[in-house]
Sequence to fold (370 residues):
Amino acid sequence: MAMLEELEAVYRKLKKDAAFKEEFRSFLNEYAGRPTNLYYASHLSKHFGNLRVYLKREDSLHTGAHKINNTLGQILVAKRMGKARVIAETGAGQHGVATATAAALFGLKCDVYMGVEDIHRQQLNVLRMKLMGARVIPVESGSKTLKDAMNEAIRDWVTNVEDTFYLIGTVAGPHPYPVMVRDFQSVIGQEARRQFLKKENALPDYLLACVGGGSNAMGLFHPFLNDKSVKMIGVEAAGLGLHTGKHAAPLSARMFGVLHGTKSGLLQTPDGQVKIAHSIAAGLDYPGVGPEHAYFQKIERAEYVGVTDREAIEGLKLLSRLEGIIPAMETSHAIAYLEKLSRRVKGKKSVIVCLSGRGDKDMETFREFI
Ligand SMILES: *Cc1c(COP(=O)(O)O)cnc(C)c1O
Fold:
């Protein structure tokens, strides 16, 4: 608790610190490549007929996804706290790569915990991290995947808190991480809101984003919180189907529990054992979800739905063929939901989809579907 309380106190101050905010903004713009475009997808819109679809192009950022927004923010906090070393957990390797990138940029030592299962499945990302000077520490415990890597990272942090900063990759984990990561990712929604107002002179009817831990979704949603007319839909990975139990959709399945310092949506057995998540998208393959999403669901500010592996592949093909944009496997879940949204709405509606990342990293997964 002591280290979380220290971090909370530091972050509370930095949040109001003009120099800190300016430094963050400058790295987002100059290094990561912000602002990203809000692109009107005319072919996709024509395909559906009743939707005006805008894509928030986080896929165009350095390293290919929204994760860099958060790692740049947290590395600046680590620097202000005088830490010499950062640690992270990673599943698919995307957060590990974004952390290794930021650590290389700031000259900090970087250790990334990764389950051995994931190390085998994500060789390319392991190589990326090593090339940028990070050490990848294999985790042999439990299911040898993301949740186990997170357990080990938390143990490391407790032991080495003097010089070490723990850089969490999504809006999950103990407070203040869900708030801090949300704040760093909110640049997505702030930009999108401004850009949409400028293009359409109105607010969008819907916001759509895929939900793993929930950081790209929360980043898009949060700046629209007080715009009551704007509906928010988070798309979870329904894997092989909610009825099969092989999915990564705790909110859609209405399953709740406590993991990694958070009470939120969680896949678990009736005796409280954490269940292994399943999704074709490695970045959605986490049994939990950020607590603020569970809250949004509870107060009915946002709605959470599931899209299966199979449906996501259709979303991937649709965007690739109609717009010449190959989305990440995670993002393809949000694209796939447009089909269902189109059937649900009455009249013509506008929607902003968070295009959280590009598909280059997933070409091996795509191979059998091409
Ligand atoms: C990691 C990742 C996600 C899932 O993480 P969130 O915290 O839910 O945003 C989604 N899309 C891409 C491209 C990712 O790399």
